[in-house]
Amino acid sequence: MVFGLATLAGVALVWMGAVDMRETGRSGSPWLALGLFPALLCPIAFVHYLRMIPVFRDLQGGRSAIARWTVPAEEFDRFREEQQRIPAASILVNFYRPPKDTPASGVEVIFSDRGVLVGDGYFPLSPTGKRRLQSVAYVASDPPTIEFGMVITTSVRTSSLTYATQRALETLRVPVATDARRQAGEVVDRFQSAIDRG
Question: Are 112 and 139 members of one domain?
Answer without folding.
Answer: yes
